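Honest question from a wet-lab person: if I give you the sequences of every part of a complex, can you actually get the arrangement of the whole thing, not just the pieces? Trying it with mine:
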Amino acid sequence: MALIDRLGNALDRGSGEIILTSMDAVLDWARKTSLWMMPMGTACCAMELIAASFNKFDFDRHGTFPRPDPRHTDVMVVAGTITRKMAPAVKRLYEQMPDPKWVIAMGNCAVSGGIFYYDSYSVVRGVDEILPVDVHVVGCPPRPESLQDAVLRLREIIATESIAPGARYDRPLSLPGGPCSTGHDASGDEPSSKCGGVG
Amino acid sequence: MNISDLRDHLCATFPDLCPLFSIEFDDGVITVERDALYAAASNLLEFGFERLGMITAVDRGEFFEYVNRLHSQSLSASISLKCALPRQDARVASLTSLWPAANWHERETYDLFGIVFEGHPDLRRILLPDEWEGHPLRKDYHDERVIKRPDYI
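Yes, you can. This is the full assembly:
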């Protein structure tokens, strides 16, 4: 359901003038639904990353599209082998991204070094040696659907975040009228208690 | 041009190169002494090998084998130019002044094998970080960061 319909439903349930929600719910909703992507493609996984953005898989419907400028982006997708020479450049690009920011490690090389784990003198064994990774996607390379699934998992993670430092909810927050407050139906019951608890 | 025509043509044009010519795996090879490499290369450029395909090396234990692959569009032929370099004193003349393409190939060979190219305009590492120690494609290279593959894989 589109946001405007959901807000309309929420207004109908109240007196028609006021919506009550939390800042965290609004911020998490805003952040999770427009995850602009920094495509850090260094090897063959980048082909799948590119394919995910094109019309067959259409990443844009998730609010995610590539933006080759760290200052405009929210999530860095590390797609490919990171060598020891490339690692400082990746770290520097990550540091240029504005907070809040997340990292998806796409493919076996970015997860653990992949086939270069053994007997290689030049490959970083997993991008989590240099960056805080939120979601790992295995595959050599992963399908575009896997990457899209990773973004959906990342949205679940973001939906539990709080603006309070270090605080985190134990379940995803939701806006009024969203799937977690569907207890309001024609029978006029109170909202279901299974959503939105503060952990 | 097939290999025997190439040899005949080369022997007619540059008799000095003729005894150095051999055939390995149906492919023309010219093996020269280190000091004669630059002269031989400039002769081959004059002969018609206007394109340099690659420069690399092979670690043969006692010595490094310098390998240079040359191509010719006009002759429709390819040839290898080889040269043995002693391991303790791996130096050879740079060919950058003949083929500008040699610049990065020689930097790569320097980076990974430690062969010094004399007369190169900018001889520094190209693939590895500048502060890297050692030359990884040498057989005696050791790096404690490398994890050896277990036997069962």
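Two things worth pointing out. Chain B has a mean pLDDT of 88. The first strand of chain B starts at residue 21 and ends at 24.
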